[in-house]
Amino acid sequence: MTRVVVVTGTDTGVGKTIATAALAARAAASGERVLVVKPVQTGIGGSDPDVPDVETVARLAGVDTVQFVALDEPLAPDTAARRQGVAIPTVREHVARIREQLTPEAGYDLVIVEGAGGLLVRLDAEGGTLLDIARDLTFALMRADGSPVEVVVVCRAGLGTLNHTELTTTALRAVQVEPAGLVIGAWPADPGVAETCNRTDLTRLTGVPVLAVLPDRAGSLSPADFSSAVPTWFDEVPG
Q1: Can you tell me which residues bind ATP (predicted)?
Q2: What is the pLDDT of residues 131-152, one digit of tens each?
Q3: Alpha-carbon torsion 188, 194, 197, 200, what sign?
Q4: Could you give the CA distance from residue 20 to residue 25 in angstroms, rounded to a whole number?
Q5: Please, are residues 125 and 110 in contact by the beta-carbon 8 Å criterion?
């Protein structure tokens, strides 16, 4: 039975890709064959294109990756596609392609799906979002074999994170998807009182456990150092 983890964020730039790489590296170290899926990537065009998230994950975690759609401008996918004048797949089509990777023939133990931006960023021209992907995968897999989809929410450490994280977890629960855990995407080297309080208050206010705390600039580590450090990030969580 292939496990599915959906990684979303409370906003853009919160550390989803590095958190995805950490989850993938942790699973791969335990012997699981891992695939990371990025349904939509934006910002890969122009004179200074972003490095695709799947390339960052592959470099840090050494796992298989696949990107379904790439768009030039660093905008919400539906906006970027409209400005670029291209048609993009619907969320339903993304879900179908993800489910193709869950078959025994595909051979994966874990499929991690990384979103774009926050939970309600529009991924297609019909208003479909990562929330829809998480919901549709959850109910499809529960009908098929009873296996749940784990949704991990990546959040900031500083001011504003409590509100953003509560909004995200509330949206998930509104469609009967219970978030599995939180990851603090970039813990500062010199945390202030807000960060220190939030580290505990995130769980107290949302009822969702903090699974890992990733240090700021973790993505700049070498692949070997990244993989070596990953277990400590998952162990050093508030009690």
Answers
A1: 13-18, 53, 114-117
A2: 999 999 999 988 777 777 999 9
A3: negative
A4: 9
A5: no
Three-class SS of residue 87?
A: coil
Say if 238 falls within a structural domain.
no
- Residue 41 belongs to a domain: yes
Q: Is 93 annotated as a binding residue?
A: no
* Count of other CB atoms within 10 angstroms of residue 88: 21
| Separation CA 184–CA 113 (nearest Å) | 18
pLDDT digits (tens, 9 = 90+) for 96-115: 999 999 999 999 999 999 99
Mind listing the pLDDT tens digit for each residue in 114-131?
A: 999 999 999 999 999 999
Token pair for 181: 């855990």
Q: How many domains is the chain built from?
A: 1
Q: Is 212 annotated as a binding residue?
A: no
Give the rounded distance of the alpha carbon of 55 from its chain centre: 15
Tell me the catalytic residues: 38
User: Is position 237 within any domain?
Assistant: no
Instruction: Please tell me whether 116 is known to bind a ligand.
Output: yes
Q: What is the CATH number of the domain that holds 127?
A: 3.40.50.300
The alpha carbon torsion through 76, 156, 228, 152 (nearest 10 deg) reads: -70
pLDDT for 125 equals 94
